[in-house]
Design a protein that fits this description.
about 80 residues, about 60% helix, globular
């Protein structure tokens, strides 16, 4: 994630979400920022354990792509998603 300049808040939400799911078996979506909560809800719809099977919600990649565009960098969000 660092190699592809993933926004700190996205990395933090991603890793916290995974950690919470691994330790508690559930993710408390309401404690995340609105944009991240939407992404986490999207991931929960396809199941969190699918992250370990390479099935990542496209919402994670859209969030990263939006950040990159705001930084003036023209890089598709799937580049970061594929690297994970």
């Amino acid at each position: 994630m660092d190699k592809h300049e993933t926004k700190y808040e996205i990395k933090e939400a991603f890793s916290t979400c995974i950690s919470e799911w691994l330790f508690k078996g559930e993710v408390t979506v309401c404690k995340y920022a609105t944009g991240h909560a939407r992404v986490i809800c999207s991931q929960k719809q396809i199941e969190l354990d699918n992250l370990f099977r390479g099935k990542m919600s496209v919402e994670w990649m859209y969030l990263q792509e939006q950040y990159m565009r705001n930084q003036g960098i023209d890089r598709a969000g799937y580049v970061c998603g594929a690297a994970i």
